[in-house]
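TEACHING EXERCISE
Course module: macromolecular assemblies
Task: Read the component lines below, then compare them to the predicted structure of the full complex.
Student: A.B.
Group: 4
Components provided:
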Amino acid sequence: MNQFTKFENISTANALISKALEFKADPHMHPNKGQGKRLGLIFLNPSLRTRVSTQIAASNLGLESFVLNMDKDTWALEMHDGTLMNKNKVEHIKDAAGVLGSYFDILAIRAFPSLTNKQEDTSDFILKQFIQYSGVPVVSLESAVRHPLQSLADMVTIRENIPSGKKPKVVLSWAPHIKAIPHAVANSFAEWSMGCDYDLTITHPEGYELDEQFTQGADIQYNQNKALEDADFVYVKNWSAYNPYGKILAVDEDWLLTEKKLKKNKKAKVMHCLPVRRNLELGDDILDGPRSLVQAQAKNRIFAAQAVLDGILS
Amino acid sequence: MNQFTKFENISTANALISKALEFKADPHMHPNKGQGKRLGLIFLNPSLRTRVSTQIAASNLGLESFVLNMDKDTWALEMHDGTLMNKNKVEHIKDAAGVLGSYFDILAIRAFPSLTNKQEDTSDFILKQFIQYSGVPVVSLESAVRHPLQSLADMVTIRENIPSGKKPKVVLSWAPHIKAIPHAVANSFAEWSMGCDYDLTITHPEGYELDEQFTQGADIQYNQNKALEDADFVYVKNWSAYNPYGKILAVDEDWLLTEKKLKKNKKAKVMHCLPVRRNLELGDDILDGPRSLVQAQAKNRIFAAQAVLDGILS
Amino acid sequence: MNQFTKFENISTANALISKALEFKADPHMHPNKGQGKRLGLIFLNPSLRTRVSTQIAASNLGLESFVLNMDKDTWALEMHDGTLMNKNKVEHIKDAAGVLGSYFDILAIRAFPSLTNKQEDTSDFILKQFIQYSGVPVVSLESAVRHPLQSLADMVTIRENIPSGKKPKVVLSWAPHIKAIPHAVANSFAEWSMGCDYDLTITHPEGYELDEQFTQGADIQYNQNKALEDADFVYVKNWSAYNPYGKILAVDEDWLLTEKKLKKNKKAKVMHCLPVRRNLELGDDILDGPRSLVQAQAKNRIFAAQAVLDGILS
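Instructor-supplied answer key:
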């Protein structure tokens, strides 16, 4: 494996899920796998869970990691070719990625979308330029379009909780938010759920349709209550509109998920990638009750990252 | 030891002081004590000395440490139960503490008081919630109410400089400042000095009385000159009023400590936790002269933290 | 070697260049040289390349490194003796340097000039005070006056590309910029180039003369085209005026370096310390073409720092 930026195929995904579960059982299984190698963690946006879980994963493999926060004005990167750099951008991504690629054996990069320039965002042009100019394996820590490490951790969590002998019904349920939120987690969750051959329903208010490349094959349902029927897993997540891009639309119905909405579905487990806005996206009753898998998902971020780094080091 | 948030009892304190002095003599006495374990250092407020000294202490024990600065707006924590999170707080302390507790074996937390909400501050509700929701041992790196690692380092420094065969007279002397400063260092110094059975005098302008739970048993003296007589150790520190809470009161007298005020007391050693406002709290003549123990205190922060981490790892 | 803040003499420089090239060939030649020792990296200004390359250099030697960013308002240092500290500066450099010197075996410090107070800047008073009060070896990570680690890396890069059997002609060529930029890189490049006995030409618009202590012995040339003739190495760099200090002067001619300006000089290699403003300081055609040594310079920062740390540890 020389890149980890999206779902590739079901056999790779299953191998990563199995490897993650092996690392969960024995995190120090390969303590010297990364010895003498270095991982650069490049953040163009803030991070807490992603940074720490990836650093712990690296440490479990004996891989030295370095964090670079480039989300401050002082290191604003110019992304466009041929620009006359006489504004506030101090360094071109070409030069920065080249240097970082010469300092590190693996780069892991977080680059959120602008939510204002749809063409640039959907081309994942920041991530792609890091890949192009760094010359080393790149792991996405959430790009404009996808958050594959989160989805891998989610798939590990589903695998741990899957009802035996059944293809699970997975529901991705839109939730309210006060800010315009990227599509990456929702896109990747859809991509991985269907890629892993789960039965996926996506429920959201009309107008919140995701990019079709990620939702083809899923059941789109505007009625949340109907979508929740018989669900084995409900993944709660906000995203902004894809069209008009990055906008928050007026929504009259109540999309907050609470126990009341699941009272007829005793078995459903509830997931969220965190951080979660309590009582806006998800009710306290669910988050503090036995349905919640959110802490398990967060813990599994370590082992998802470890499986990926192990694969790249192999 | 499963928690380090305050003075417990004299035998525990004496054991920690002795252990710290052992580590000072041989920092690498237990180089593998923390092997395979991880310490998360969570800062809700800035830190320099505390962060570095604790990281060095951890490293001396082979304990891997990770710093998380959560004092930026991007990770503002919601602290109150049942809140509808539709404002600027992005994550609830319940969820964050749960995740951090699942990533780390020990958490060390800095959480300053607001100095505006007395009830919340004096209940130490941030520290308590981290303890409640993280499920792992917690070390205070200064909470709203106490700064026990500083006080332990102070007690180590007093032990090193104590006049033999005598119960020392310790004076906590209020100093001027331009900002409203928390009570934590003063509270803890009083708690530990009396807990270690030293003769404590607290001197400050009228109106600057500390919370009585920390000062019972101490001699309160409004006349600084009188308080300084026969002092063995003078601990200089500013704090804001406890009542009215967090306010700066008008003070007419001169409370800056200089050599002139100590000219009749040749033996007194002078202490301060740093950072110190020179010539506002303490004169250059004292800080740059032989009375000053401030550098020794700062150095002892390493060994205080090392004794505490060693105790938790045992 | 007990300090690394400037060019000392040609034999020391040559030994460092050779050592850096040895480390480039075998970075893990001395993996335990720094064992049990600690390096504190103190940044009063932002850094990316310098921080990471120095941390990697330290790691290659088994030297543990800690980063302290003191460029935030919260830790603004008071630099002047005898000040009444009742303003926004929270700690005196005396106290901070003393503590840092007691925590670390080596300190490395970045302290940019103000560009407003010429006397303070040109006395390098921040760097000098860290040296005076810390009591441990100090490495400059760029001070107000010099950037010696950059220059050492530059000299390593020149050595790697030097035409055999010839004293190379080195040209330091001023470039446009939108901000007032320090003189440190230019000063040091002049100091090291002439110190290493290279033939140095400095070309810049009239008015941009550098401090004479660094330019004595160099050929000063106001005509860029003439300066570029027969150059073996062209080092492109902006700096603000030295007199009037820190100002940007109106310049009518075109000082951007492009292939067109070098069309008669096929052999010239082009250097820049990065970050570079593309198409303002240096054209894309040069940066993306075969003349450019900028990535090699950046990579050599690791081995320059490693040679210096190795020397201090010896």
